[in-house]
Every structure is written in C-alpha cells, then in structure tokens.
Amino acid sequence: MSAAMYTPPGRERVSMPSAPHEAGHDPIGQSHQRSRAFGITEQSEPDFSSPLRGDLTSALDENRFLFQHAAPVMETLYDQIANTHSMVLLTSAKGMVLHSLGDNDFLEKASRVALMPGMDWSEQTKGTNAIGTALTEEEALTVHGNQHFLNANKFLTCSCSPIFDPYGQVIGALDVTGDQRSFHQHTLALVRMSAQMIENHMFADIFPKAIRVHFHTRSEFLGTLVEGIAVFSPEGRFISANRSAQFQIGLPFAALKAHTFSSLFGIPISSLVDLFSGTLPTPKQLVLHNGVAVWCRVKIKAANPWNAGRPMPVTPQQAEEQAAATPSPAVAKVVPRKPHLSTLQYLDTGDPQVSAVIHKLRMVSGKDIPVMILGETGTGKDLLAQAIHGDSNRSGQPFVSVNCASIPDTLIESELFGYEEGAFTGARKKGSIGKILQANGGTLFLDEIGDMPKHLQARLLRVLQERRVSPLGAGKEVDVDVAIVSATHKNLKDMIARGDFREDLYYRLNGLVVRLPALRERTDFDLVVQKIVKSLCESGQNIGIAPRVMDIFKRYHWPGNFRQLHNLLRTAVVMVGCAGMIDMEHLPDDFLEELEHGLPHPVAQRLSTPVPTVDASLPEVPSAPPMPEPTVDGQKLQDVAISAMAQMLRLHGGNVSAAAKALGVSRNTIYRKKHLLPPDLLG
C-alpha cells in the first residue's frame, strides 16, 4: 500500500497470529471472552433463525444511504477477488448482512453457516468473527481460521473494516470472506481502502450548504482516495472530516469539533472563499495549524431543492450538522432517489390547501413556535418538516428526525435522551448523547408523536418546559436549545380523551397546527407527477405519461399517498427505459389488480381502450363490458399474484405484514386473497 495512504492510528490493526498487538490489547482474546459471556459455546451450530432475519427489508430501508454508496465499491472490490473462492459482504452497524457478492461455489459453502443476507453476524450471535469483532472494536482486522469462536466457522478467513459516516460514527462494515486455505496478507489493506472509498463517496453527497476543503501535502494526490476532506459551515464552523484529514491535521474527530476553519488553516473562511472564487480550479497552498503545508481545492456547493435521497444514515450519533437533508426511506438496492424539497417555496406547487399551510408557516418562521403537522401516512410530513427547518434561522444547524413508531419501546428513551457509559447492559462504549442533544441549536422532528409511550411523554414535556435534558445514568442535566416540529396521522384529541396522550404535552407541541391534504385531495396532481418523474429520470431521459394512465392516477384513491406514487413511478420509469411514455404495461401487477377491483366501471372499461385525452367527466356506464383479465406471459394476473403472495408468506413464516411490505402491497390485498391461498399460510 502507498505510503501516502493515511489512516488514523488504531483503525488498521491486523489481528493475525503473527501480527504484533499494542501492549495490553488483544482483540481476538477479548472477543473470545465476550463470546463466552454471551453464553455461546464453540460447538454451537450455525444459527439460521437469526432474530434479525425478518427485519432484512427494514434494515435495507434504514441503511439505504450506506447501500447506495457501498454497492459500486463492492462491485469493484469483487472484480479484484473474483475466482479466489471468496465473497464480499456489506453489513449494518448491528452486524446484519445486507448484501453479498461472491463466487458461486463459495456462496454455497457460506450459506451452510448462515453467512448470507438477512443473518446477524454480531458477536452476540456468532461469537468471534471479523464482522462482529470489527464492529465491536471499531477497527479493521482479520479473523483467520481457528481464531473464530465457533468451530463451524473455522474454515473461513475474514477481513473486515468498519465504515464510518461523515459524523465519525460506525454506520456499517465491509468484509471479504474466503476459504482459510486461500488467505492473502494484503486482503485487509484492500478492504480497508475500499471502506475509505465508501466513506469519501458519502462526503460528496452530503452537506450541500457547506464548504468542502480537499487537501493533501502532495498536489498529485488531490482527487484520489488518500486526500483529506474537511467540511465547514459557511461561517467557518467545523462540521466533519474524513480519516485522512484527521491524520494530516493531527487531531481526532472529537477534538476537531472544537475548531473552526480559521484555527486549523490560519486564515478566515471569507479569505478562503475569495481565494477560490472567480479563478480556474487550480490547487492552492495553505498551511495547517501544525505547520504542515498542504495543497487545497475548495468546493462550495449550492443546495438543489430537487436533490434526492435521505439525509445521511438513519441514526447518526453526535451529529453536528445535517444541512443536507434528503428524504426517503427506500428499498433494498441502488435506486433512484426520492425528490427532496428543501424550502417551503418548492413545496408550493399550486394546491390551495398546501398554499394556505405554507402561508401560515411563513408567518411563524423564525419565531421558534412549535409546529404540529397532521396528515395521512405518506402525505409528505417529513418533507414539510425539513422545509420548515430549511427556511428557519436554524438552517445551518442540525435537523434530527425521530420516528417514534419505528423505535422499540425499550430503546426510545435511550435514543431520545442519550445515556452515559455503563448505563445499562449492552450500552455502546462511551455512551450516546441522544437525539435531543444531537439537535441542539437546530430542529428536532418528532414523527408519529402519537406513538410515543405514555411514560416518556412526561420526560419529553419536562425537556420542552425546562430546556434541559438528563441522559440515562448521568448525574447532571445539560442545557439544550431546539425548535420542535411534530407530526402524526392519529387523532390526538381522541387519544387524550382515552388517556393515551398527555393533554399538557399536546398543548406544548401544537403552537401552530397545520394539516397536509391527502394526495387524492390535491388539485396540483399533474404537476406533482411531472416533478417526481423528472426527478427519477437520468440525464437524457424524456419520459411522459399516457393520458389514460394519468386519468387512472387521478381516479385512484392512493392509500399510500406520495410514497406509493413515488415507488410506482420509479418502477415505471425503469421499465420505460431511455425515452417514451409510461403506459399500462409499465404499471406493477398488484396496482393493476387493485384497479380491477377498486375503480368504477368507466375506468375499468378504459384500462384496455386507448383514450386520446384525459377526461375526468365521463358519465357512468352501468352496462359497460367487464375489463379483460390482465395476463403476464400467458398466465392470468391473479394466478401470478397468488403465487407471489404464497412464496413471500412462506419466506416470512406467515407474517402478513412482512410479506406485504416485501411485495409492496397493503395487508388488505393479501387478506382479500386469503380464500385462494394455501390454508397453512394464514392461520
């Protein structure tokens, strides 16, 4: 590996038998001790009933940001190790395998020990292994042959590196696993460099309002894997730095948070902007605080209101800046990103109800009045919350989102309020500051507030009243300054009447209450559809929508609102290709099936009849002939749908919710077909 490859000390230890260790630190030995403490025995059989397996879709959804940036790097890495009886794996921060690429013969062997997507490879379930141990130690390492705790895994050799997000927190891990007889000492270096490549790619897609400084002591290394990247706010406050930047500056991430651009580079941030504005993009030399001269390029990127993707990982710790919020929990592959509206003006697309909401929000902007957003699931409450933050005087500070419905009751308290080291069994080393303190100075978005457990409502109320928070296990309170935006699809007043929601908390949260209309109620539907399609199209694509399809869209009830519409259009755009028109054959089968059963006769008749223009005023035609049953490759659509439902129910052990989510349909769609499914699948 090149001597110019900078990695902070402690991130690249190779735990091979012949490799020296730091005094007193034996990661493999300590991991074996932890494995025994977890109650695992060396004779334990591979666990194919991982408690995380059923959550693969959710994990892929939560780790979409990581997956987007890791998938291309995984392909490149696999090209370098192909035909070596090996595989490349990507995992979540909890150790769940999200994706794998490998030689077919070795993939089959790996599956015998549950080394495949959906399985949990944390130390708690598999004992000492490269994935679980690298995540626990937060360092790159190799676990070879007999170093594995389980006898079943001792035929493997595994090299793994944790992946750190732009906030310095572990977001996942990259691993290369192979037959222990084919071990190569350079594999770990390859994995480590690939992980750093993923980390650098993340920087390129985030912080759109920030100033990125790319630097290295040698100008020829600018733009390469080994360049340092440091990110600053327009005012010069430090936001983030990659591993190479930390090494060159000579300070760890935690220490850098106390610095500014001026204290690190010796000149005001305004001088930097002047230096790099209006000139050719040639490197210029600056001097770091430690006297080291570095060549720099500076990137100042304006935020794009229709930029896509969700902001950063779902759970960044100690977030100092989340100016680049880009929403959309998506699915298990590299997919076109969901459109993101960063300010209120871009949400105003002509619907009178939405315009009235935006007018009210502009009147209270900057006044730190709590805002409560009501509306059905999928109406864009999260987009509106980010737009509120983006238009406020806190826009340069963190925007932190908490979905109260998606965090287990047992974890939501520690997620919100944080905890001190050792506060409870299994707590993260060094503790966690919690979401409320992460949002300090910025905006805290409490999504699905109606699902917050009753016993935590009192703690939240106290934080809002006193502006102080006490992490679990801490003996002190910390001042906190946050703007509050909450959202729910539930009727909180009914919940108050039933005693399920605190009335005093309700009146703390509803300084201004606004309601987002459902998609079917909006008058700007055409424009919304056009913007979504445009955001999904790649450069050079010009895709339209057939009039009969738009007519159907307008008549459909859209129970999933924008989320459902976006997912449907995403699939259709992919099927259409480079150019053309979205027509009936490009729509998903389950959607066509719902149309068959749910739309009035005039539309059902026209599903197979071309119409020249959109006509929303056709009269009822009671005697219209029934719609011909759709087919797929000669099979009746219903038969195809039933087969898919049965297969997915078997895969998810009869769990209707999980099967419906995997198929992209509602649970009611499956229940309606209950009489056609094998009786053993639905109890």
TrEMBL record:
Keywords: ATP-binding, DNA-binding, Nucleotide-binding, Transcription, Transcription regulation. Signal peptide: none annotated. Residues 347-574 form the Sigma-54 factor interaction domain. Residues 1-31 are annotated as: Disordered. PANTHER family: TRANSCRIPTIONAL REGULATORY PROTEIN. This is Sigma-54-dependent Fis family transcriptional regulator. It comes from Hydrogenophaga luteola. The lineage of its organism: Bacteria, Pseudomonadati, Pseudomonadota, Betaproteobacteria, Burkholderiales.
